[in-house]
Amino acid sequence: MSDFNAQVIADFKQHGGQPGGHFKDSPVLLLHSIGAKSGQERLQPLMYLRQEASGPWYVFASYGGAPKNPAWFHNLVAHPEIEIEVGDGTDIERIPVRARVVEGDERTTVYAEQARRFPQFADYQKKTTREIIPVVELSRR
User: What is the pTM of this model?
Assistant: First the structure.
């Protein structure tokens, strides 16, 4: 895990799921995935979109616009039943979820909303050589 991610995770836990710094005022969750090859648990802080309080969480395999998908995306495809942590600034809840790759018009709509709220996501799509940046829906199980 990178030092940057370790710091975000520590900040997330210290502030009840509301990290500061680079992610101040951004929705962040902690993704507990299982390595596609290793089978080991991995922990990744990710920005998310949630359009309704009882709806799913959406995460974006933007990887900062890099030409390949991040490892966590491959982990979710291989092992879709995982857990996330989300917080309200006071409490952090660990939630079992099922991952589903969103495609077609649904993917386009969700990604466009994330890019509207956080313009850097539009920049990531322009920067990457990938045809699209994958969107993953995380639904309670």
Answer: 0.95
Q: Tens digit of pLDDT for each residue in 34-84?
A: 999 999 999 999 999 999 999 999 999 999 999 999 999 999 999 999 999
The upper half-sphere exposure of residue 53, i.e. CA atoms within 13 Å in the direction of its Cβ, equals 1
What is the token pair recorded at 112? 């466009």
Sorted by where each begins, the domain ranges of the chain are: 3-140
**3-state SS class at 34:** strand
13-26 pLDDT per residue, tens: 999 999 988 899 99
- Separation CA 121–CA 113 (nearest Å): 10
CATH: 3.40.190.290, 2.30.110.10, 3.40.50.1700, 3.40.50.2300. Which one for 3-140?
2.30.110.10
